[in-house]
Amino acid sequence: MATMNVSLPSDMVDFVEHEVSQGGYSSSSEVVRDALRLLQHDKAQSQEKLAILRREINVGLEAAAAGRFSKKSVRDIVAEVMDETSRE
Question: What is the pTM of this model?
């Protein structure tokens, strides 16, 4: 495994040391690796959400170009979305 030196602000150093002292990790390297895995996962999810949003925008643009429009108002659509999310 490659080695890398990283400078951290004191509050992050304190956090890393605390995590190791609590026994959740055996070394500061494990804490940093876990944090980087979480960051990678978060970025991958963000990219996935962005790709879905772009696809849906294109679906809407294609429908509009074909003359297919909803008769619902913006308020109706927002109410439907809010209702769906409250059920989740």
Answer: 0.70
